[in-house]
Amino acid sequence: MTKKLHSIELRVSFGDCDPAGIAFYPNFYSWFDRTFHDWLWTFGGHDALCRRVGAIGMGLMDASARFFRPVKNGDRLTISLAVEEWQSRALKLSYEVRVGEALMATGRETRGLFVQTENGMIAGTLDQIRELTDRNDA
Hints:
Elements: E1 4-11, H1 26-40, H2 46-53, E2 57-67, E3 76-86, E4 91-99, E5 102-117, E6 120-124, H3 127-137
Antiparallel strand pairs: 1-3, 2-5, 3-4, 4-5, 5-6
GO molecular function: thiolester hydrolase activity
Pfam family, one: 4HBT
Organism: Flavimaribacter sediminis
């Protein structure tokens, strides 16, 4: 993982688990998204950032996860986010999910900035978003 930018902590609850008593895998994607949006609150939140740059939203273009150990009811997770790469029209993020020092899962996302034009929705450039986040993360 490159430089960690942001992390959240949460406790896994019974409702997060499947019948085997381990966290149901789609929840990891939800937790990645929650971590991303929590990071955006540092800059006023998703909606405020998008309004500022004239975009509809910062949407998901690709996502993946790898699971190394089962996460169970009651586990206290730390989910960390890092920017892997800023591209002109795509932001590549990585996530680590830990219980204490133990690495439980990793994830990757590619997100884009979506802008409405008269010809439909397009992926906008991320320059303004990068400038805003770099200024506040320094």
